[in-house]
Amino acid sequence: MKVPSLLLNTLIERNVRKQPDTHSAILCFISGFTFWSGLVSYPVRRFLKRRRSLPSIELSSRLDHLKSQGPASLDALNELALEIAKLRKELTDATAYLPSYDQRQYETHLKTFEQSLVELRSSSVSKPKFSFKRKQAAQSGSSSPQPAKGVPQSTSVPPPISAASQSNGRILSNLSNEYLTSSSIPSSTSSGDLTISNLDNCVVNLVSTPNGSPGSNQEPKITALHVRDISNSILLFPPNIDGSAMLHNLSRCIIVLGCHQFRMHSSSHVNVYLAISSNPIIEHCSDITFTGYPFSLFNDSDAEKDILTSNKHLSVQDFSHIRPSQSPNWRILPDSERVPEGGWPHSKDVDLRATLSRLLPT
Amino acid sequence: MGLLTIIRKNRQKEHEMRILFLGLDNAGKTTILKKLNKEDISGISPTLGFNIKTFVHDRYTLNIWDVGGQRMLRPYWRNYFEQTDAIVWVVDSGDRFRMQDCKEELHSLLTEDRLAGASLLVFANKQDLEGSMTSEEISEALDLKSIRTHQWKIFSCSAVTGENLLEGLNWVVGEVANRLYYSTT
């Protein structure tokens, strides 16, 4: 048994080196009768060798070190998270040829790493990364819904939603030619879901700037954002939306936004100024540009640093173009075409029409 | 001993289940899965393709397939239907605009022959968001009551807080276990 299996082993190894993609098939076939008697194919051995060596040991010692140090810095945590993710990816890639026992072992190792990372993260949050200082009382007085002055360009029927649309979330919709701030949002609650739909020729400013323009002195806390059917408008959101953003059917717009996940569907001619730590997604879009979140709209320099160091606003994935080549549907917005830092429509007093025609993509 | 008994015995030995996580994009499928597996959920990107997780839950080995929900990826769902014991349909409870879309995708999924008999767990996710729809509202919006072909149940949950995730998983695993391993012919 021993001799033939060794023979086979060398045979396989030779084969494997020649045609790496057939190794798993051969391995399956062979393992049927020689099982595990010293038969470890080349890629498996390579994986084991690498895995047994440095990274995991080094990682665990680093984790311990960080734990003993007390609150860990964000950079160190991010770096660790990245490495753990890398290890996990390697493990996933290796599932094809790794025996299930070893898979489970590595899986448990990785899990302990991840758990300790989570612990570290929660312990290091001495001050929350983002926090909103919201004045509670100011809301109640001025929150009468604004009547739409201009006639909406298309007298389209409101979105066909059933009884389900009786929401107690915040909704801003069916307006045109308006400058809107957080006080324009008719709502009972002041945190959570925000839905914006059916706007035309509007500026929506939900960002409070350091110099405190009137009407926008309170940032609304947003944990999920849905934007739909917007045209010829500028939407300014804070850089720290604590959740995902879903944008649908936008045309000729500027979006300024920071969030955990970004998805845009069926849109065209949109400039996106983004702060994000995951890959932005576009689907069925055209003429989209991406660039970083504008500096002048940050109101907290710490948050700014955190966000900009991990910004992945250019790792856009176009689901309508899943190929290695560059997607024709989006590009990087050159710095020369960015809205200048001082040029954002901060205050209600701006000339709406002129601002829109000056800033919007043509 | 009929053929069915042999098949059952065979599966009993393995104690494996294959569970498919589906739903529209932005529903939180990957986040739920990572939370269940006690992984870090802070830096998840939208899924391009799919993730596989294998973990042991209550004597059973669960093979969980989490397939991306972007419109472009939905035609590929069918590639994962074979031998599926349970479907977990994840719904973003804050996404009122796409409930219709969500309902259509779910009902067309349930007409698939290869999914006949699979148990259906609906997760009304993102309950941590204020203003999200309740599980009753979602049940109504998705017309779950009309489903006669599959055993189904809806759980409201939050992937961020972990609320109700295990309860949902327990239900679906119990349901599949009853069907595959304990029923007698």
From TrEMBL, chain A:
Residues 158-321 form the C-CAP/cofactor C-like domain. It comes from the Eukaryota. It comes from Somion occarium. The keyword Acetylation applies. Coiled coil: none annotated. PROSITE patterns: C_CAP_COFACTOR_C. This is C-CAP/cofactor C-like domain-containing protein. Gene3D superfamilies: 2.160.20.70, Tubulin Binding Cofactor C, N-terminal domain. The keyword Acetylation applies. Keywords: Acetylation, Cytoplasm. Belongs to the TBCC family. It is found in: Cytoplasm. Residues 137-150 have a biased composition (Low complexity). Residues 131-167 are annotated as: Disordered.
Automatic annotation (TrEMBL), chain B:
SUPFAM superfamilies: P-loop containing nucleoside triphosphate hydrolases (SSF52540). It comes from the Eukaryota. PROSITE patterns: ARF. Keywords: GTP-binding, Lipoprotein, Myristate, Nucleotide-binding. It holds the Pfam family Arf. PANTHER family: ADP-RIBOSYLATION FACTOR-LIKE PROTEIN 2-RELATED (PTHR45697). Belongs to the small GTPase superfamily. Arf family. This is ADP-ribosylation factor-like protein 2. It comes from Somion occarium.
